[in-house]
Amino acid sequence: MNISLPESLKSFVDEQVSGRGYGTSSEYVEELIRKDQDRLSLRKLLLDGASSAATEPVDADYFNSLRDRARGLRSK
């Protein structure tokens, strides 16, 4: 895939590549695309959560239980 950019955007990409440790402009663009995919996934999760049925409020015990379960999964 080839992408044409105006000179001002090409210069910006080149600056990002050299200043932020990317090997190529493709690596920079790939990271931008991955971040956008993550953003869209998070947005979907938030919208799904907002449209789901209400639940009981959570408290410290709920989060402690989650931490305990996560610790149990990591130790196996």
Largest sheet: none
The ordered H/E elements are HHH
Report the total helices.
3
Radius of gyration, in Å, reads 21 Å
In whole angstroms, the N-to-C terminal distance is 43 Å
* Outline type: elongated
Which structural class best describes the helix and strand composition?
Answer: mainly alpha
**Strand segment tally:** 0
What integer is the average pLDDT? Answer: 93
pLDDT under 50 segments (min length 5)? Answer: none
**Helix percent band:** over 70%
Approximately how much beta-strand content do the residues carry? under 5%
Overall description:
α1 packs across α2 (25-51). The radius of gyration is 21 Å and the shape is elongated. It has helices at 7-19, 25-51, 60-75. It has 76 residues and is an all-alpha fold. The model has no long low-confidence stretch (mean pLDDT 93).
Describe this protein with a few key phrases.
single chain, 76 residues, mainly alpha, elongated
Topology, pairings included?
Layout: H1 7-19, H2 25-51, H3 60-75
Helix pairs in contact: 1-2
Short description:
This protein has helices at about 5-20, 25-50, 60-75. The chain is mainly alpha-helical and about 80 residues long.
